[in-house]
Amino acid sequence: DTAVSQTPKYLVTQMGNDKSIKCEQNLGHDTMYWYKQDSKKFLKIMFSYNNKELIINETVPNRFSPKSPDKAHLNLHINSLELGDSAVYFCASSHAVSPSGNTIYFGEGSWLTVV
Amino acid sequence: GESVGLHLPTLSVQEGDNSIINCAYSNSASDYFIWYKQESGKGPQFIIDIRSNMDKRQGQRVTVLLNKTVKHLSLQIAATQPGDSAVYFCAEKTSGNKLVFGAGTILRVKS
Predict the structure, then answer these.
(1) Which of A73, A96, B30, B46 could form a disulfide with B92 if both were Cys (CB 3.0 to 4.6 A apart)?
(2) B49 vs A105: CB contact, 8 Å cut-off?
């Protein structure tokens, strides 16, 4: 009965590879997000989607391509992985585009290590 | 441990004492604020929120105080327990409808 679930939890891959992280939420939310947390624990938004439509794109390199097949899923595909992409990636969801008054729920994170 | 190599502010408290975690936010136009708790190996977990038209909000064992004059937010945890040990983040909603997170504070509870 996990609210926001993302897979895989751990991913170790070589530079130059392409990888995907999948996310699903069963909360009935219409907005989903991807956040990146670096080694210093700094948490920064990458993307947000509302009803499958891209709302926020925080100047993320175009090697990162989110895809939302339906409002319960937001997958993150990363091309040509670089060492600096190593981080924890969190998927999240909320009820509306504006987070004011609508709690954002986070998944457990996907630990990506690029070697 | 998880905090090795991190240079986040750290608050160490004795079990049973009260904890106060502080946060300075940057945007005077921010109108909504949230405190999150992140335990080791897990995602951020919602604790409590407050809108800018309030200066105090209480939950179970937690209180958030908002001082808009100096752009300061604090989280008070009453009777701190070992299970409260985590990294705590404040977040503000900016004009772009984004949640911007602060740097985080490590709370260590000593038994």
Answers:
(1) B30
(2) no
